[in-house]
Amino acid sequence: MKRFAYLIIFLAYSFLPAQKNIHHISKEYTDVSRGNRLLLTEIWYPQDLVIEPGKEFSTNSQVYAKKYPLVALSHGTGGNRFSLIWLAKKLAAEGFIVVSVDHFGNTTDNRIPEYFVKYWERPLDISFIISQLLKDSEFSNVTDHNKLAVIGFSLGGYTSMALAGAKLDCSLLKKAAKSKQGKQELTVPEMGDLTPLIEQIDCKQIPDNLKDERIKAFVALSPALGLGFSTKDQFKVQAPVLIIGTDNDKIAPVKSNAAKYHRFIPTSQLQVLKGNLGHYIFLPKVKEYSAAEAIFFEDPKGVDRTEVHREVGEMIIDFLKKSL
Asked: How far is CA 320 from its chain centroid?
């Protein structure tokens, strides 16, 4: 049923009229170093960049006259590369090149249970995609290689923190999975109770370092997996970080997630959205939900999700322009 909700999101936003001040293309990349891992990718970019398939970018005035910052997006558990499309369009309209990827096995239409807990694959996806864009003949010469940022939602929020230098303790997460709190926070609408899968994780297979030194600014929207952190020694973060949570988040409660990340990261700032807002306020708005879906995805009466997105978008754009 939740898959249906995400499908509606995908369809609704795929068929919207194109925004006049931005462009959009789709690409496919494959990471052969990780078992030919397919990464479906969407890219939004400013209007003054002109692209012809297979040719290098140019600007309307002068080839390579301007360099654009690059922002990578990481969706939440069971979402997809369109989950933050509203934000991608806002950023592209403000002069950013935006790349959003499907995290293989953990998406709306590609659900592989064990991949829902392979949290370390996601930062590797983002680093790989950034590398591809920075050497892509269509993007490399117009991208400012010194102005790279990552924005993630939910499990994607963790992804952003991992790339910043947060090192999750696998054994601590497995221990938390056996607790009542762990059971609550590690049960998601998209897949159900993930704790049995988490208990089966082989911690030895996880790379020791997921930090990407090329990325200069990080944003986490309702970040998850705070249960895997307990000390400041797990955070080797020097770059600016913006963390945005919601006061009624039942999936990734602020106290044990957003606020915990903020407490351990001296370079971070925390914004908590008031108004009884829940975890999924960061997803695109769907006009109608079934009764079962509404429990998780519906907004409280009087909440204008479009207005929340406008506020959050401005907050993020301001942060990126100051941080990059």
From this structure: 15
CB 241 within 8 A of CB 265: yes
Largest Cα span, the chain? 60
Does residue 126 contact residue 73 with C-beta atoms inside 8 Å? Answer: no
Q: How far apart are CA 118 and CA 198, in angstroms?
A: 9
Task: Report how far Cα 59 is from the mean position of its chain's Cα atoms.
Answer: 29
Q: d(Cα 9, Cα 3) in Å, to the nearest integer?
A: 10
Is the pTM for the entire model greater than 0.85? Answer: yes
Question: What DSSP line would sit under 241-271, residue for residue?
Answer: EEEEEETT-SSS-TTTTHHHHHHH-TTEEEE
Range 133-146 burial, b when 16+ CB lie within 10 A, else e: beebebbeebbeee
Strands 217-221 and 143-153, bridge-based pairing: parallel
pLDDT of residue 19 exceeding 70, the answer is no
How crowded is the C-beta side of 147, counted as CA atoms within 13 Å? Answer: 18
The values of phi and psi at residue 194, to 5°, are -95, -5
